[in-house]
Amino acid sequence: MSIRAIEEAPMSRFHRKLTWACAGGPFLDGYLLSIIGVALVGMSGELNLSTGDESLIGAAALVGIFVGGLVFGALTDKLGREVMYTIDLAVLVVVSALSVFAGETWQLVLLRFVLGVAIGADYPIATSLLAEWVPGRHRGRLLGVLILAWYVGAAAAYVVGYVMAEIGGPGTWRWMLASGAVLSAVILLMRIGTPESPLWLVNKGRPADAQKAIEKALGRTVPLGDLVAAAEAERSVEQNRFRDLFQGVYLRRTLFCGLFYMCQITPMFALYTFGPTILGSFGLGEGNAGNLGSALISIVFVLGCIPALRLVDRVGRRPVIVWSFALMVIPLAVLGGGSALPVAVVVACFCAYALFSGGPTVLEWTYPNELFPTGIRATAGGVATSISRVGAAAGTYLLPISLDRLGTGATMLIGAGITLVGLLVSVVWAEETRGRTLAETSALPGSSPRSSGAAGRHRDSVRAGDL
Fold this sequence. Notes:
By secondary structure, this protein is mainly α.
């Protein structure tokens, strides 16, 4: 189902404000998930952490994201995007503030787990809300902006961590973790007053509320009768349920979204969480110098997303994801040479991987929101996030152990193998969704979507969703 007044609306101040507010969540996610890599340097010595303790603390948030995405994606489809949109930010404020008082490993693991649950909840909430409000021709780019914000947040974490480590003394790691509370509070204030998704309101049989939301946000009036007809049509068909994600074509799409997401972020999260350690293993500086190197690589990740944002709406989703994965394998395979590689080659490979990763990165949240209907859109996004975090958590937990036992070269080759799996998954299952409405991209092959949007302006205008 799509609403023509939204699909064909010009970009407005509301769309820009909504994009910034939604992007605030991924910014915080990147910041909070990356600052732990900087904080671990000081934390390890002060709390006498073992390698296993560091692995648990690093992976705890990713396990939380698995739980948060799986549970709260489904709740978002039931309770609404707006309700969950601010609750998760409030949790981030509290948990970040409590990190100041953590003194035991189990306390840090617990706090990072709860933080991860809130982050996992925000992924499907913010992305589905933005996808259902923005015009179709801008959808790929604006959803990609959200993941770009993640990298900006990650880069900011390393910069802030570097500065705090330079000017601070013992215990600075506590304030690094607590700094997220201030940022979370700012984003929380930005999100207050955001209207509910009209698509969700119509899907739940609330056409009058959908009409008010569109008028308030876009200044456009949609005849109530059309929305009522759409709501009645929604009630007349079988509603999508959680189990539909694991049946037929939706099963293939669920596996595609989850697996390519997992193969993209498993090496990436390991690099972010233990960036200074990895760079040190290549002889590129340890301690705070490694933090600065990680910040520079994070900036390259941001730069890699910029051309991808334009290409997904110009050349299409499928060629971008396939070619990006293919190119990402090469630098990781070269890094398999280990610490014997010249410094210039190591730096070039890290930068190349960061640049090439922009393609699948900007599609992490685009594909789940385009390939599933309104009734299970956030659920699908949450499940894809959860699948991805299985690999990310395992990779983050095992990376320091792998570096210690297998060495740097073998660890990088494992990352190359995981990326190669992502390439194969994309070649076999990636669909092209560019230039189509949400109703068309989420429809099953061979079925007629319940919306024609701009492409079907001359079809029956009273058909459900063609508004």
